[in-house]
């Protein structure tokens, strides 16, 4: 029974690391193709495409959040992995909070953060998730 639980925990942790990296790839694709769409399509079609892309990213983000919570719960005995997964989840949540913050500041200060603001939170969250994955499977660690 314990070996089955250990395998399931490994699967949950791997699914979280995979979903956060897929989310990072989706953000990179969204940034890459955003300029191309504006140049090639009409403004009505661009708004529809951006809305569908935003909906997809929100759905994928909810899967990431659920898998992060599951990874935190299943890796609770591993202190280092648990803290890395919690940090990863908190940084990932910045992906949803930062646009609201900069939208508020837009009227006060002209601020053009560029695509780096969208890449940094999921990139750092992905890095922390894989660091947690490695910390969980580190040889000699008591779980």
Describe this structure in words.
With 143 residues, the protein is mainly α. The chain has one domain (2-136). The chain has four helices and no strands. It has helices spanning 2-40, 43-74, 79-105, 116-136. The longest helix has 39 residues, at 2-40. It is elongated and about 55 Å long. The mean pLDDT is 84.
Q: What does the radius of gyration come to?
A: 18 Å
pLDDT averaged over residues: 84
- Classify the beta-strand content into a percent band: under 5%
Number of domains: 1
- The SSE string, one letter per element, is HHHH
How many angstroms does the end-to-end distance come to? Answer: 15 Å
Largest sheet: none
Helix content: over 70%
In short:
The protein has 143 residues and is an all-alpha fold. The protein contains four helices and no strands.
Question: Can you give keywords for this protein?
Answer:
single chain, 143 residues, mainly alpha
Give the topology.
Elements: H1 2-40, H2 43-74, H3 79-105, H4 116-136
Helix pairs in contact: 1-2, 1-4, 2-3, 3-4
């Amino acid at each position: 029974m314990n070996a089955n639980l250990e395998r399931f925990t490994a699967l949950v942790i791997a699914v979280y690391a995979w979903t956060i990296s897929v989310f990072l790839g989706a953000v990179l694709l969204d940034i890459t193709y955003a300029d191309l769409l504006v140049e090639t399509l009409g403004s009505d079609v661009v708004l529809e495409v951006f809305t569908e892309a935003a909906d997809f990213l929100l759905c994928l983000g909810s899967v990431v959040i659920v898998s992060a919570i599951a990874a935190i719960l299943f890796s609770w005995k591993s202190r280092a992995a648990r803290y890395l997964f919690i940090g990863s989840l908190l940084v990932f949540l910045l992906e949803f909070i930062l646009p609201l913050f900069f939208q508020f500041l837009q009227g006060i200060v002209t601020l053009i953060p560029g695509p780096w603001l969208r890449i940094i939170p999921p990139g750092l969250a992905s890095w922390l998730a894989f660091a947690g994955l490695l910390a969980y499977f580190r040889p000699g660690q008591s779980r």
